[in-house]
Amino acid sequence: MAVDNFDLSPEVTIIGAGPCGCAFAADLASRGKSVMLYGHPDHRGAIPMIEKNGGWLKASGEISGTFQVQTTSDFDVAARHSAFLVSTVPSYGQETILQALSPCDLQHHTLIVNVGNFFYLASRQKINPKNVLETDISPYATRITGDTVFVKGVKKSLAIWAEPPTSETEASYYNQADVDFLHQEVESIFSQRLVWCKNLLEVGLNNINPVVHCPAALMNAGWIEATRGDFFFYAQGMSPAVSRVTEKIDGERLAIARAYGLDLVSITDYMNQNYRHDQEFSDYHDFARGSVIHNKTKSAPTSMNHRYLLEDILFAMVPWYELGLKAGLSSPTIHSLIELASVVSGFDYLTHGRSLRAAGFEELSMEQILLALGGPADNAAAAVLAPLSDSRINGRVNGVDSHVALPKTQVVA
């Protein structure tokens, strides 16, 4: 953990006053930071609760105490508080935040999006922060109960992306010492160890939330609607059959990652590595029924109109599926879940999800997409940039000119 450098960023603004935002605010305040918690005027979250408590935020569990935080629903006030803005807004609320940010001059601000879910694809032409960073997952397993944020667990590490996806000419403008200092500043904000990734795909495919949430939510639809979530989502909802589907989804996620030259860990290994368990779990079902942290509360969705589908399918599974198609992978179980969620919700997730088309990447090859999002990882260049047997014809890659200019990016770090 990089807590020794906390004075590098003594003020932090948190965007989003939901459970994650409150847990993050409590964590920062517990380490001596000056915290401003911003809630959108139409989605103020826990701000009324904190104001009712005289500006004090109560926390229990892994982070325990009562902490003073500042609150606002005026973004100008929030932006003046700190050059570091950490968004904890669910992905389905990111468009609202983009609308709030777009009129603002953020050229001196660093925006950290937690969880990113390919936020960059949606933001690249809408806002102008000095730096945009994305993490793979929330640092906390947390809920708000009454007037207290209950932090069930704290992750050990997070994957984060902030490398400049630039050409060699553009890269010459950036000083490595400045990049290193930015990394130190950001590390002082998090109490978790940060794993810096070279490209966005590594972070976006490392988000295990869709693997955990989506199969269990869809396969327990009857129980969710009958009980309004009155059951233990992990220990009871993730039965052997549900866990097998979960591991199948995870296998397809890992296959997509390998196609782009990325070596990610399985869902069970991830859980063993990132939570403080008393034992090593042998498979996903063993974890789901045995994890004390994840069974402290029931945690089941109360309806099918829940972020476990609205966020995890729209903003993670849809881009995973499209990235897989670029690599020649059909990902049938992922595709089936997307289609099933569309039927259950009466909403076309593939049409409205965070697509490559919306980012202007629809016509790019997988190689070009990888380069546009940071370039191949050090161990991936040979695997990804090797000639494809049938798709390179007369200087073209998958029907796109191999020398086509990559879309201009705004991410610098």
TrEMBL record:
GO biological process, one term: glycerol-3-phosphate catabolic process
One of the Pfam families matching this protein, by short name: NAD_Gly3P_dh_N
Domain Opine dehydrogenase: 196-344
Keyword Transferase annotated: no
Location of the Glycerol-3-phosphate dehydrogenase NAD-dependent N-terminal domain: 11-112
GO molecular function: glycerol-3-phosphate dehydrogenase (NAD+) activity; NAD binding
Keyword annotations from UniProtKB, A to Z: Oxidoreductase
Organism listed in the record: Aspergillus campestris (strain IBT 28561)
Catalytic reactions on record: sn-glycerol 3-phosphate + NAD(+) = dihydroxyacetone phosphate + NADH + H(+)
Protein name (Swiss-Prot/TrEMBL): NAD/NADP octopine/nopaline dehydrogenase
